Amino acid sequence: MKANLGCWFEIPVSDMNRAVKFYETVFNIKMHIEDFCGTQMGHFPFAKDKEAAGAAGALIYNPKYYTPGTNGVMLYLSSQVDDVSVELSRVEAAGGKPIVEKMQITEEIGYMAAFIDTEGNRIALHSKN
């Protein structure tokens, strides 16, 4: 394969401002909110280099088509400091709930942790350390 199959993700939200504040706090990032054809989107920062690893994505508010929840696909977001315990330590204070503490997947793959965000989505974290 030339690239990983995943190329874009959308995380459903019920309250865009609350969700943006949560993710900005947990990941120490700034997000950009825009209206896209009648759907509100909060964009995660993304690499300008088209060869960069990982997929770009956004928070999305459109209650007609998107419902937050803990069932379904598990999305893994990369630790921005290569240690999932750093982001996980910010989850509760930001209004979320840690549900899986840092654990090693395998030596080769690295570590994971998971949380429920302010919107009720189950999200995982990944890091090599």
TrEMBL record:
<dbReference type="InterPro" id="IPR004360">
    <property type="entry name" value="Glyas_Fos-R_dOase_dom"/>
</dbReference>
<dbReference type="InterPro" id="IPR037523">
    <property type="entry name" value="VOC_core"/>
</dbReference>
<dbReference type="InterPro" id="IPR052164">
    <property type="entry name" value="Anthracycline_SecMetBiosynth"/>
</dbReference>
<feature type="domain" description="VOC">
    <location>
        <begin position="5"/>
        <end position="128"/>
    </location>
</feature>
<dbReference type="InterPro" id="IPR029068">
    <property type="entry name" value="Glyas_Bleomycin-R_OHBP_Dase"/>
</dbReference>
<dbReference type="Pfam" id="PF00903">
    <property type="entry name" value="Glyoxalase"/>
</dbReference>
<protein>
    <recommendedName>
        <fullName>VOC domain-containing protein</fullName>
    </recommendedName>
</protein>
